[in-house]
Amino acid sequence: MDKEVQEQITKLRIEIDRIDRQMVKLLNRRAILADQIGDIKRSLGMPVYVPSREEQVIANVQRHNPGPLSGEAIGRIYERIIDESRRLEREEMERKKRQEEK
Question: Which of the ends of the chain has fewer CB neighbours closer than 10 A, N or C?
Fold first, then answer.
């Protein structure tokens, strides 16, 4: 591989790394907001898990997807993000319950 091609690949990888760092910040911000919503719902006795809301979230991101990822790919990615948000909520709920028991 010649030097010019290697430099181009390096520049593209640097840009990918920068985007990945932004995505991590945004995913964590999203998780914080989802956890706050979960706290509010729990305090009001509302169900935390609402399948129709998950469907809305996935439909929304698919609708705003310009590609090149397919709508199905975006849906799978968001299913995973939502799964992790739910896992975080469960862990946070268990942590708060343990604190209350002390």
Answer: C
The span from the CA of 73 to the CA of 52, in Å, is 20
Instruction: Report CA-CA distances (Å) from 46 to 4, 39, 49.
Output: 58, 10, 9
**H-helix or E-strand containing 3?**
helix 3-43
Domain 3-101, architecture per CATH? Up-down Bundle (1.20)
Domain ranges of the chain: 3-101
pTM (2 d.p.): 0.82
For 46, phi then psi, to 5°, come to: -85, 155
